[in-house]
């Protein structure tokens, strides 16, 4: 069976590259980069009289005709040589026939371009070694590239041979389809792994579905009931105890809860503070119990040569910037020891 497919053409060009990579142009081909391949292309087209097929490949791939005076414009086309670089390095399998045709030029592969390669394999006995021209076919049938393409397609169909070129758009669609299938496969595998790795969670879920009523222990049940009672009873008490009173006022030795709209001469009305509302000024003497379990239960603030004592920690109700301190034995000995109770 004739080896005339595009895959055969790519294999043949790649084999030619391996043969010549260390020959005359090894500087460009041994470790190819797109810049080196671009420079080799310019050198080949500049130094040699290229045939029309090579010139057609040049203009088709690069989008401009070869002109010795347009080197700068040519140098801008460096990315067009990227598929050839990866093709020579074995990193990708190019789907662009024009890129492979340019690769064939760079390694001087014959027969080229691809259509001549197809002809050579379809009619090996009808082609001379000098110009690879058809000897027994009417010339009109192959005057233009379009006629040649149609002619080759027809002959290949007659021989039952596939053309072998993958259109770039079709190739992209195939790759995208394969990518989607791969992603779907990964998602399925990931889902299976999660299911396998979490049997206990699944069993628990199934158990809940089968037994929707979960029995609570006696302690939990009592705790839930207690919280519910506190909420139900506490809110009404707070609501009725402090109906519209959200402020407090110091009344000499304790706080009174008052309406925030109340006018006070000394402007000592402040917002209700749950931590401060129970503060009271107390009188102390040499028999007062200042400690309980070695912790102070009396708190003080110094006022000139005396102490003001209170029943809890907090800020001074008349001097809010002053914070009350726990009583100490030193302060008791200095200010209280000689103060008898009255």
Description of the molecule:
- The protein has helices at residues 6-20, 26-29, 34-47, 52-62, 71-75, 82-89, 97-106, 114-122, 145-159, 168-197, 199-210, 218-241, 329-335; strands at residues 247-250, 255-258, 269-271, 281-282, 291-292, 295-296, 299-303, 306-310, 325-326.
- The protein has a 4-stranded antiparallel sheet, with no helix packed on it. The protein has a 3-stranded antiparallel sheet with strand order 2-1-3, with no helix packed on it.
- The protein folds into 3 domains: 6-166, no CATH class; 170-210; 247-335, no CATH class.
- It has 342 residues and is an alpha+beta fold.
- Mean pLDDT is 77; it is low at 129-144 and 164-172.
- The termini are far apart.
- The chain contains 13 helices and 9 strands.
- β1 and β2 form a beta hairpin.
- Keywords: Membrane, Transmembrane, Transmembrane helix.
- The chain crosses the membrane at residues 223-242.
Write the layout of secondary structure elements.
Layout: H1 6-20, H2 26-29, H3 34-47, H4 52-62, H5 71-75, H6 82-89, H7 97-106, H8 114-122, H9 145-159, H10 168-197, H11 199-210, H12 218-241, E1 247-250, E2 255-258, E3 269-271, E4 281-282, E5 291-292, E6 295-296, E7 299-303, E8 306-310, E9 325-326, H13 329-335
Antiparallel strand pairs: 1-2, 1-3, 4-8, 5-6, 7-8, 7-9
Helix pairs in contact: 1-7, 4-7, 8-9
């Amino acid at each position: 069976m004739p080896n005339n497919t595009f895959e055969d053409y790519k294999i043949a060009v790649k084999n030619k590259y391996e043969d010549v990579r260390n020959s005359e142009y090894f500087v460009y081909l041994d470790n190819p980069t797109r810049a080196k391949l671009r420079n080799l292309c310019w050198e080949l087209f500049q130094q040699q009289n290229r045939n029309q097929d090579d010139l057609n490949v040049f203009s088709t791939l690069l989008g401009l005709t070869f002109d010795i005076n347009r080197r700068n414009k040519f140098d801008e086309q460096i990315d067009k040589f990227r598929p050839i670089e990866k093709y020579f390095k074995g990193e990708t399998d190019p789907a662009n026939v024009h890129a492979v045709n340019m690769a064939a030029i760079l390694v001087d592969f014959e027969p080229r371009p691809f259509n001549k390669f197809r002809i050579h394999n379809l009619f090996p006995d009808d082609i001379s070694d000098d110009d690879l021209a058809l000897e027994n076919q009417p010339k009109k049938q192959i005057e233009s590239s379009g006629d040649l393409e149609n002619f080759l397609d027809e002959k290949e169909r007659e021989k039952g041979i596939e053309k072998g070129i993958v259109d770039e758009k079709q190739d992209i669609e195939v790759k995208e389809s394969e990518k989607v299938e791969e992603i779907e496969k990964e998602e399925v595998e990931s889902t299976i792994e999660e299911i396998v790795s979490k049997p206990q969670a699944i069993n628990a879920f199934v158990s809940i579905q089968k037994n929707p009523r979960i029995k609570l222990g006696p302690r939990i049940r009592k705790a839930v009931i207690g919280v519910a009672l506190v909420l139900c009873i506490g809110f009404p008490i707070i609501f009725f105890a402090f109906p519209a009173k959200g402020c407090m006022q110091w009344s000499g030795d304790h706080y009174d809860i008052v309406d925030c709209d109340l006018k006070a001469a000394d402007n000592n009305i402040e917002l209700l503070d749950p931590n401060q509302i129970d503060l009271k000024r107390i009188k102390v003497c040499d028999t007062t119990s200042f400690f309980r379990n070695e912790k102070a239960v009396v708190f003080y603030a110094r006022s000139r040569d005396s102490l003001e004592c209170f029943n809890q920690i907090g800020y001074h109700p008349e001097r809010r910037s002053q914070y009350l301190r726990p009583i100490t034995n030193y302060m008791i000995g200095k200010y209280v020891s000689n103060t008898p109770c009255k």
